[in-house]
């Protein structure tokens, strides 16, 4: 079985970020390729036949990590360095870039004029709540940068949860000594700079 490859980085542009469907799809596919299938990815690193077949191994159902068979540390390290961490870094790069787009002025916002017109109209509106108690309600259109900022905030929260769960599996199966995924990822980043 071949190792999964990390998701290739998309071409980053403001249009990529503002197309929230494409952004969400990229993050979803990247997570499903590596993180959501972490158990299968780690199982693929096992080489149970290297010691020969033990007939007694089928007598009892093994529920804990293939009966204590640990994954080769070199295979784990290679998986983390070549698949897991690059995938996480790619998603971090995308989220950081799009967060920058969300906090930058957006001169190309197609709804800018419409929002300005609605805002001017709403300032001039006279509301008689006795006649229509719901007329005071106004739901202004959200700028696409605000919508993008909310999406990035939510996706970063999802990313934290996914990475913590994935790292828990890596520690359990590979016996990694790093206490948390942030330290492990930062260590990998340092090794990449050298």
UniProtKB/TrEMBL annotation:
Similarity comment: Belongs to the MIX23 family.
Official protein name in the record: Caffeine-induced death protein Cid2
GO cellular component: mitochondrial intermembrane space
